[in-house]
Amino acid sequence: MNLDTIFQALVSGILTGGLFALVAIGLTMILGVLKIVNFAHGEFLMLGMYLTYYCYNVLGIDPYLCLLISIPIFFLFGVAIQRILINPVLKSPMEIQILLTLGLFFFLQNAALFFFGPYLKSIKTGYARAIISIGSVNFSSTKLIMFLFSIAFTLVLYVFLKKSDLGKAIRACSEDSYGAMLVGINVRNVYMIAFGIGTACAGAAGTLLMPVYYVDPYIGLTFVMTAFVVVVLGGMGNYIGALVGGFIIGLTESLGAALFTASLKQLATFVIFILILLLRPTGLFGARRM
Amino acid sequence: MTMSSPGKKLYTVLIVPLIIFLVLPIFAGSYLLHIMIFIFFYAYLSQCWNILSGYTGQFSLGHAAFLGVGAYTSSFLFSQYSLTPWVGMFIGALVSLCVGLFIGHICFRFGLKGAFFALATMAFAEILRILFLNLPSMGGAQGLLLPLRGNAPLLYQFEGKAPFYYIALIMMLVSVAVAYAIERSKTGFYFKAIHQNEESAEALGVDTKKYKVIAVGLSAAMTAFGGTFFAQYFMYIQPDNTYSTFVSFDIMLRSIIGGMGTVAGPVIGSFILTPLAEITRSFLGGKSGAHLMIYGLILMAVCIFLPQGVYPGIKKWLTRFQSE
Fold first, then answer.
1. Who is most buried in A7, B105, B169, B312, counting CB within 10 A?
2. Can you tell me the distance from the alpha carbon of B180 to that of A283, in angstroms, rounded to the nearest whole number?
């Protein structure tokens, strides 16, 4: 174990952490606004990866250009899912809501298995092999692009939530949907849009991840678990918390893989998860009440 | 949630399928027996889950942890020390009880509720899966292959499926009896009180934490017996078919479709879902994923249209039958 390995792990952890943050921000928005624990969130990411894969391999569309396709498609997909599936259970007990998203998770995962097959798929872009070196630390350009886009999305989303009328309405619903309704906000529409934005985050994350990683139908579960850890760490419904939490978990996993073995890296994540749940269930930075 | 005490007619209704179940292995082929074994087995596991999650409302998404602990304990003791799984399964249940009490104690001590408890149980199961994947003494990712001893009833090994069929049937009946006894006991009333309103139960003097921990422990110990059965039936276990999140889902789905917090729910759910899963698997076998896709659709439909499960409907029909 030398210092270079540690630096390498730190850089890699921060780059991955940016992506975790993007996935988690979508999840935390759905959780904060609709109070829905969305187990299908990782499946949106998985579908985003497949969409990018087929856009590249069949239509020859550059993965990063594919963002222009995947973001609107996943926004509309999320809106439709909210309308058809989530809306009927919004007033149901928590376990029914969990079960519904679990059902959606099962359906999407196995639809992917059925239609796309169980094999690992990856894309080979011209720039995938471009390596950026700073001193002794190397990382691929695609990972850097993934990181920069993720951070950019997160910031745009943050400014949108802080400044725009719609963003303010979303935050109002997240704090008190009844109060929001009383001041004339169309809560039903806000729920739909929030779910759409959350889904679009996961879809965009999938597109950004495709040039870096491989896709198979089972990838969603890993990511949704990680995203839950990030969300709980940052505080449910807390956007800045999700960003910081993403970096913490990214660093934990890459340092865990460097210090122990790669197969054990998730262990550290889950242990942190349980500790946070037990000791600070409101997250490191406080949460909106769930 | 009052239950009318079942009248004499209901017993006669139940006697008929019981007799059919008892004599079925004489006529049935091995495939039908296999499906029946799975129906009983999942009804058993789901009943164990139901005792915790259905009655007390503490939603576990990690029951695979207890199944895995049971399966690994008895199989490890058998393959390393030649200890018969008939004894090993009790040790497995004991270990699982400890794991359950540990998880329950730390979760409820810190007041985990609802979705938080569900996520914590899921994380515990994942931790065990990753640990066992990395434990060479437990076979790692390759898993444990149990030594074959031919027809050895004393070692929980049999030729043919009929003995397994009867074991699974007995397990299911025992679990139903346990749930039935709990439902009528003081403990059962405490469980239901916790489910309906924990604060009120606490205010009325119920030690809610204690009874929640009892529910986890009981459910964990019972689930472990299912783990040993699973290991002996397949003679092979690995972390991905015991500790996996999908096993947890498989276990809970039966109760949800049948009706959570009812004695009959898990059994009804298993009779609906297990054959459906097997049939879609064999019809669409070439294309993997199809049967789980149908699972997902059923689950979503149940949540939207039948959030109580199918049991309330069946109960209504039965009471009409009784009054005639």
1. B169
2. 40
Q: Could you give the ipTM of this predicted complex? A: 0.83
Architecture of domain A3-279: Orthogonal Bundle (1.10)
Angle of helix A219-234 relative to helix A94-116, nearest 10 degrees, comes to 150
Q: Which residues of A touch B295 (CB under 8 A)?
A: 103, 106-107, 110
Interface test with A, best of B300, B305, B308 (most A CBs within 10 A): B300
Q: What is the pLDDT of residues B277-317, one digit of tens each?
A: 888 777 776 567 777 888 889 889 988 988 888 888 788 88
What span, in angstroms and rounded, lies between the C-alpha atoms of B83 and A123? 51
How far apart are alpha carbons B21 and B40 in whole angstroms?
A: 10
User: Which amino acid makes up residue A2?
Assistant: N
Question: Residue B61 is which amino acid?
Answer: L
Alpha helices in A88-140 (DSSP H): 94-116
User: In this structure, are residues A23 and A227 in contact, taking their beta carbons and an 8 Å threshold?
Assistant: yes
Nearest to B96 by CA among B211, B210, B218: B218
Which amino acid appears at position B294 of this protein? I
Q: Which residue type is seen at B304?
A: I
Catalogue the E-assigned strands of chain B: 144-145, 236-237
Residue A130: strand, helix, or coil: coil
- The SS3 assignment for B144 reads strand
What range does the domain containing B162 cover?
A: 30-244
In a domain, B283, yes or no: no
User: Both tokens of residue B206?
Assistant: 């119920």
Q: Give the length of chain B.
A: 324
CB of A82 less than 8 A from some CB of B: no
Q: Read off the tokens for B79.
A: 């393959």
